[in-house]
Design goal:
37% of the residues lie in helices and 11% in strands. With 303 residues, the chain is α/β, with parallel strands linked by helices. β1, α2 and β2 form a beta-alpha-beta unit. It starts with a helix and ends in a 21-residue tail after the last helix. The relative contact order is 0.20.
Amino acid sequence: MRIEDFLEKIGIEESDSNLEISEKSFPDGAQYRFEVPGIQNPGAMAALVDATDDYGVKVHRVTQTKGIMLLTDNEIEEMVDIALDGRMELFLSVGPRATYDTSASANTPEGSRIGYRLRGYKNLLYALEDVKRATLLGVRGIVVYDEGLLWVLNKMRNQGELPRKTHFKVSAHCGHGNPASAKLLEEIGADSFNPVRDLQIPMISAIRKSIDISLDLHMENPKSSGGFIRHYEAPEIIRSAAPVYLKTGGAVAAHHGWETTKSQAAERVRQVYLVQSMINRYYPDAKISNLGTSDMSLPEKSG
């Protein structure tokens, strides 16, 4: 059997053109949502919500990237309250990672391939405790950087050790960018997948054809991740990748984990407005989700 035929047999196909339309959608029938990453604290999150009113845009998901362990309980609870009031998802990132522990290799050019993955039993344990703490405080969205951690978290969720509503989002920092990797992540528990940032639209389309979970795609990036901006591609990305979260506002930051100020949080929302304007101009029929839809991983009040 030809390799191409075998791949098709197991659900992996090449995309014929960058105009191939995805027939998939979110459960509410919408094609796209907006995500703003890099919101690290309650003050920045409150400023973001205020700015959405000023610009008249919807932000469905806010992502914190520095790590759960770097937030106090009160800060997490405050962010949960802001998310609930704004009817948006709050995703917190697992704190333990190679760049935070004693790894010398992770800070070298070759060792950087380790990314944010976990080293050793103890760091796996710490990561699981990080997630457990967040969910006990009401968080229902977790960003993961390690495939083994995802596998364990999914087992915990299935066996009732974590709330059923908890959603796991695989970060671009895991370094995945092909349909087979996407299928693997979906099978071991991913609810949302952020492939590497610089995939061309036919590459994205091939991944979309292989999985049903939402894709999270960067519309812009900090200089540390290449600095490229894809505003004009947003309409075509929606056509090819739906259901998709358009990750917007990254160009405001200097690097991943940037401590976004209140004014920069508002600037990130301005970037959302620019992308929304492109969609309105070039793909006005594209369907965006309302805030607070039933399938969203909205936080829940603890206690």
